[in-house]
Automatic annotation (TrEMBL):
GO molecular function terms listed in the Swiss-Prot or TrEMBL record: DNA binding
Protein name: HTH cro/C1-type domain-containing protein
PROSITE patterns (alphabetical): HTH_CROC1 (PS50943)
UniProt keyword terms in alphabetical order: DNA-binding
Provenance organism: Thioflexithrix psekupsensis
Short name of any one Pfam family annotated for the protein: HTH_3
InterPro entries: Cro/C1-type_HTH (IPR001387), Lambda_DNA-bd_dom_sf (IPR010982)
Domain HTH cro/C1-type per the UniProt entry, residue ranges: 7-61
Amino acid sequence: MQLHEKLKVMRLCKNWSQEEMADKLGYSVNGYAKIERGETDLKLEKLSHISDILGIELQQLLGLNEKNIFNIIDNSPPQGSQSCNVYLTESQCAHELEKYKLLLQERDKEINYLKQEIEYLKEFVSLLKNNPS
């Protein structure tokens, strides 16, 4: 996948039109369209600006390739939830997986705590019912 194709994929992942992307970059629509068609040579400064707008690191943008793993979901209105693929390396995926495992552990702790609280409150209500004084 060539850089201009990656830019188009990333823009589509954001559910942005070429007009919106051009506006965010301060470019004309025609100028941005030429970038996506591969008709414009991009200097590092322009690429850096584009990656900032897309919300990714420049090295990620330059490193995107077909061998990486696809993995991001973009929930962009107005169409609702749309799947969109963005490349993550194996180590990035492992890191994300570890984060989610920790979040699940914390969720399980919270659930257990809330179950204990419910039991305590049930006992308390039962005591109140049995001792109305």
